[in-house]
Amino acid sequence: MPTHEVTNQVPPLRGYDVVGSDPVLVEALARWGSTADAADLHALGHLAGTERAQRWGEQADRNPPRLVTHDPRGVRVDEVDFHPAWHELLTVAVGHGLTAEPWTRPAGSGAHLRRAVGFVAWSQVEAGHGCPVSMTYAAAPALARDPEQAARWSPLLASRTYDPGLRRAADKAGALAGMGMTEKQGGSDVRANTTRAVRAPGGPLPGATYRLTGHKWFTSAPMDDVFLVLAAVEPGSPSCFVVPRVLDDGTRNVFALQRLKDKLGNRSNASSEVELDGTWGALLGEEGRGVRAIIDMVGATRLDCVLGSAATMRQALVRAVHHARHRHAFGRSLVEQPAMTNVLADLALESEAATLLGLRLAHAVDEGETAFARLAVAVGKYWVCKRTPPMVAEALECLGGNGYVEENGVARLYREAPLNSVWEGSGTVNALDVVRALSREPASLEAVAKELTLSRGLDARFDAAVDDVLARAEATAAADPLAAQFGARRLVEDLALVLQAALVLRHSPAAVAEAFVASRLAPERGGRCFGTLAVDLAGRSREVVDRAFVG
């Protein structure tokens, strides 16, 4: 048809190195990682940018998992049927060591940083399969509390072999892990859980064995091989149990999948309700100390919430910049239009600061900076996850109507964007966790203050903001806990901004640092929406955009 000549449409975003085109990843790897890891990560980045990998992501999202409760004979099987693309995605993630491998490498080797770079890159292909990847990574430090359980499961969780078949641990080449905490009567208040455990010595598992009965309201990735589950041995504080899907005698453990959740985003990943009815579990740690045992897992999954949200931001930014470079209006490309340059530069600042913070947190794990990580992970989880939905929404708008169409990729990112702010503790839960750390673990604030001190003297506005937020943090630590709750979110927001600013001032180019500090720490120079950088930042805003996506 003569009317069907296609002009001014943007070419597909394919054939680029997701790692190599991101200067924040490249620089962090050089600064905190090992050059020995570079080749493998760039190979992963090249694969992430291919049409093949992008098709896997689209197929996994468009073909959600299907619950199969019974076989044709009516025998209960409780399995989840996935599209083949899901398995392709997990094969790559596991094969590149994005699960529990870092916990098996020497301290100080940069293994967690390497894994964080890979996780940010590969999560940009599709986010849903990152859930079992993340929980498998996070299970290892919790299992380390019990040498017998660690010896049994950690090598499988760290394996680079994706082995999805349900078999006993002794017959597996690799395994994935999940967790079961949330229940119907309350998600974050795990001490209100009603799942009960009864001692049953001599069961078909190593260690102290128990039978568990209860209903878990949100158990993601229910096809995994082993789960950490909270249950109370008697009314009171819950204990933590290692619950495998298949017992040592080869029989299936009772793990009845009641239904899969119909979710806003993260649709490729199966989130389920699970019924436990005499389910076998082995005690991890001490009775009544389950929250303490599983908190190691929660801390690591919260780190992945930061990294996963940074990945979502990054992919939205890349698609917006790619579109603006190839789309023309009023005689020139969109990226050359000053109003659009302002928007893209502002989005680039948000993305760089989020990614840089996430990688710094991974480096803290490498270096054993537990006090710093204790506070900074909760701060980062709150702020980066909160910023992702508005950031992705603005990136979507850069594509106009094309952004609202599923086939262009940004719509899926928008549906995914709120997820990490909900998982592993909502924003309020994380804000209150920060308040708790300030009052109960003063070393955590001291460690964050030390990190901020490294950037003092680089910008007077930053110095003033640090003085203010540290004074308020110290006052909060000494305040009545209930009184401190009302201002918790504002305090955490400001802690996050000065922490991001400290990192940007030290590690990012001057144009990025100046624009970030001016717009985030001097509110009078930036508006409430993205794309409202002050006019005097216009001169270097294009430099910020050009740095954002090297491609």
TrEMBL record:
UniProt-listed Pfam families: Acyl-CoA_dh_1 (PF00441), Acyl-CoA_dh_M (PF02770), AidB_N (PF18158)
Keyword Oxidoreductase: yes
Annotated stretches, region: Disordered: 52-71
Alphabetized InterPro entries for the sequence: Acyl-CoA_dehydrogenase-like, Acyl-CoA_DH_CS, Acyl-CoA_Oxase/DH_mid-dom, AcylCo_DH-like_C, AcylCo_DH/oxidase_C, AcylCoA_DH/oxidase_NM_dom_sf, AidB_N
Protein name: Putative acyl-CoA dehydrogenase
Alphabetical list of Gene3D superfamilies matching this protein: 2.40.110.20, 6.10.250.600, Butyryl-CoA Dehydrogenase, subunit A, domain 3
UniProt KW Oxidoreductase keyword: yes
Adaptive response protein AidB N-terminal domain mapped to chain residues: 8-164
Cofactors that this protein relies on: FAD
The entry's keywords: FAD, Flavoprotein, Oxidoreductase
The Acyl-CoA oxidase/dehydrogenase middle domain, residue ranges: 179-277
Record family assignment: Belongs to the acyl-CoA dehydrogenase family.
Single GO MF annotation: acyl-CoA dehydrogenase activity
Residue stretches making up the Acyl-CoA dehydrogenase/oxidase C-terminal domain: 288-438
